[in-house]
Design a protein that fits this description.
This protein folds into two domains: about 240 residues, Glycoside hydrolase/deacetylase (TIM Barrel); about 80 residues, no CATH class. It is about 40% helix and about 15% strand. The chain contains twelve helices and 14 strands. The strands form three sheets. Strands 1, 4, 5, 6, 9, 10, 11, 12, 13 and 14 form a ten-stranded mixed β-sheet that branches. The radius of gyration is 20 Å and the shape is globular. It starts with a helix and ends with a strand. About 40% of the residues are buried. It binds zinc ion (ZN). The site of zinc ion has 6 residues, from strand 5.
Length: about 350
């Protein structure tokens, strides 16, 4: 807890102060200024307040910081449409200095309600990777269901054997100070399971942990089909992110091919636009992935390796940087020593 507090003080106070006196600018300029580099930013959710992010898992940025980040990007970088920027990178054609592309994963409703209006205000293009399974019902994604149950339960611990996760240490404590850690342990265990088993574990969690009604801030609502269409109509790029967001290693080649094809086709029919960009679910891949993406005609794929891309880039392994829920000064601190990633072995 103390360590976390110390980190928060650095992120919220020290690094913005250091940035004000120009500590990071030279390094950031040296990193981003080269015409053969592209920084791809990764967001998941843009939230109204911290009630929607009970365990600080790094997937939420508050609206006030999101706007600050966009204002800085608009003033100091060249934000490009992702496919166009990657095409330049792949062909080793010069990009404008400080080239950036903005992406969002998963297709949460706050992308449309909170992020899109601010992107439009600053006239910035962006790519939204939408999970297609359950788009019609807007059923929350499996990890958001687990987070909501764990955030709302009154239980002080849980026996993992009673929720279908017998490999975890028991009992798993759910006290206030350790609940976020236990949440991460449970999510990692769920990542090892197929959709049927995940559903079963979640049902058992609901039964054992009795979360009661989930408050609106924790409902993690997803965009429905009309809302994805609206985002596309407003000029944003829609990318594929699989149908169920499970580890591709759990699927054989044929299942993976079918999943990628189905998610792409559904999004193309919905948006009436080509869907040529793909994001690996949770950054996870499998040996067949690049071949299948090429066979299906995807232009490129983004993953979650942290770094700045440099030509010659690897088409199906474009690196990204997860955006922090902090002021711009802290973002500069976090990227100033980024790894440079290219396709040379
Ligand atoms: Zn995702």
């Amino acid at each position: 807890m103390l360590k976390d507090r110390g980190k928060q003080i650095i992120k919220q106070i020290v690094s913005p102060l250091a940035d004000k006196v120009g500590v990071y600018d030279e390094k950031v300029q040296r990193l981003m200024g080269e015409p053969n580099r592209l920084l791809v930013l990764m967001y998941h959710r843009v939230i109204d307040d911290l009630a929607s992010d009970p365990f600080a898992l790094g997937m939420c940025v508050r609206q006030k910081y999101f706007e600050e980040q966009l204002a800085w990007l608009a003033a100091h970088t060249h934000v490009l449409p992702l496919t166009q920027a990657v095409e330049h990178l792949l062909n080793n054609e010069p990009l404008p200095p400080n080239a950036v592309a903005i992406t969002f994963d998963d297709g949460l409703l706050d992308n449309l309600s909170n992020a899109a209006p601010l992107l439009e205000r600053y006239r910035l293009p962006a790519t939204f990777y939408v999970i297609t399974g359950g788009l019609e019902t807007g059923h929350p994604m499996w990890w958001d269901r687990a987070i909501a149950i764990l955030a709302c339960t009154q239980a002080h611990s849980v026996d993992p054997r009673s929720i279908g996760l017998p490999e975890l240490p028991h009992p798993l404590p759910l006290g206030r100070n350790v609940r976020a850690d236990s949440c991460k342990v449970i999510l990692n265990a769920l990542w090892e399971r197929n959709p049927g088993a995940i559903e079963q574990c979640l049902e058992q969690m609901e039964e054992m942990l009795e979360p009661g009604p989930i408050p609106p801030a924790l409902q993690a609502r997803r965009m429905n089909t009309q809302q994805v269409q609206e985002l596309a109509r407003r000029g944003f790029q829609i990318g594929a992110h699989t149908t169920r967001h499970i580890d591709p290693k759990l699927l054989n080649r044929e299942q993976l091919m079918a999943d990628l094809g189905a998610s792409r086709q559904q999004l193309q029919e919905l948006t009436q636009q080509p869907v040529d960009s793909f994001a690996y679910p949770g950054g996870r891949s499998s040996v067949w992935m690049p071949d299948l993406l090429a066979a299906l005609g995807f232009h490129h794929a983004v993953d979650t390796r942290r770094g700045i891309n440099q030509a010659p880039a690897s088409r199906y392994a474009i690196a990204r940087v997860g955006m922090p829920d902090t002021p711009v000064g802290d973002f500069k601190r976090a990227i100033r020593n980024l790894q440079i990633i290219d396709a040379t072995p």
